[in-house]
Write a structure and sequence with these properties.
The protein has 2 domains: 124 residues, Aminotransferase class 4, branched-chain amino acid transferase, N-terminal domain (D-amino Acid Aminotransferase, Chain A, domain 1, 2-Layer Sandwich), CATH 3.30.470.10; 162 residues, D-amino Acid Aminotransferase, Chain A, domain 2 (Alpha-Beta Barrel). It contains 8 helices and 15 strands.
Length: 301
């Protein structure tokens, strides 16, 4: 399955006919689009089940944050979004989607023109089949994350840090993900995931106020520990505190000596780590319980 939408319009080559009267909405991307010229935009990776996006609340939170920080005019997009889901995706049983939003086309130069028309694209494909693995191994990335507090947390279109870090290992190296550090050598995130660790009943995750992406599943975990005492009790009945501690200056040794380490992102969900840089990491049933609770929202009717 593959569907492609430009500005909310299903494109040729898909199952539904094209509305020729929609005009410019059918174009894909212009060389003058600021997403292509400057990376001026954001994106989201979505998981669909039974025609719904269970984690949309968290995706919308991050998009709203981008609207405020980057000045992206997203109001019309938000008004159009639910109609697209209802009309085109209601029969989709399970899939993943990538949403790319650009500030739009503009003249040459970095300055944002006073009048901009947003462009956005959505690609819907089959959910990737994940291989069932007994071990999930991490390597340590040499490339450090760039520091820009104003953009920290956003999933903007410039991902060169992640591109360079992910290029440090090949498939035959048998690593599943890489840990990225900041310029000070502190643990921040994976190339495509957020990091948590459990120690003496307390859950930790790195501070992302200076760099890194504030992932949707990361915020889901933090919310569960903050508001859902039942989930916390199931996952870690001996928790020192029901809140996740946001750790500044997180060091690699804290992960290597943890009672458990796990990663999160929208497609993998919650993934327990078995090895970091060749060192075995302890396993915890608390992480398995938390993963089960997260996956409940993706059980098909």
């Amino acid at each position: 399955m593959e569907m492609f939408f430009a500005n909310g319009i299903l494109q040729p080559g898909n199952e539904e006919p094209v509305n020729e009267e929609a005009g410019s909405a059918h174009k894909c991307i212009s060389i003058h689009d600021r997403a292509l010229q400057y990376g001026d935009g954001v994106f989201e990776t979505l998981r669909i089940v039974d025609g719904k996006i269970p984690m949309w609340k968290y995706h919308q939170q991050r998009l709203t944050n981008a609207q405020q920080i980057l000045g992206l005019p997203l109001d019309d997009f938000f008004a159009q979004w639910q109609g697209l889901i209802s009309e085109h995706l209601s029969d989709v049983k399970t899939a993943c989607a990538k949403l790319v939003i650009s500030r739009g086309e503009g003249p040459r130069g970095y300055k944002i023109p006073p009048q901009m028309s947003l462009n956005w694209w959505l690609t819907v494909t089959d959910l990737p089949v994940r291989e069932t693995k007994n071990e999930f191994k991490l390597t340590l990335c040499r490339h450090a994350l760039s520091r820009q507090p104003r953009l920290a947390g956003l999933k903007h279109l410039n991902r060169l840090d992640q591109v360079l870090a992910r290029s440090e290992w090949n498939e035959q190296d048998n690593f599943d993900e890489g840990i990225m550090f900041n310029l000070d050598g502190d643990v921040i995130e994976g190339t495509m995931s957020n990091v948590f660790w459990l120690k003496s009943g307390q859950l930790y995750t790195p501070d992302l106020s200076q760099e890194g992406i504030d992932g949707c599943v990361r915020r889901w975990v933090i919310d569960q520990y903050r508001h859902n005492s039942n989930v916390v009790a199931k996952a870690e009945p001996k928790a020192v505190t029901k809140a996740v501690i946001i750790e500044k200056d997180a060091k690699l040794d804290q992960l290597l000596t943890a009672d458990a380490v796990f990663l999160t992102n929208s497609l993998m969900g919650i993934q327990q780590v078995s090895q970091i840089d060749g060192q075995t990491i302890k396993q915890s049933k608390a992480v398995e319980t938390l993963s089960t609770e997260f996956n409940r929202q993706f059980i098909q009717d």
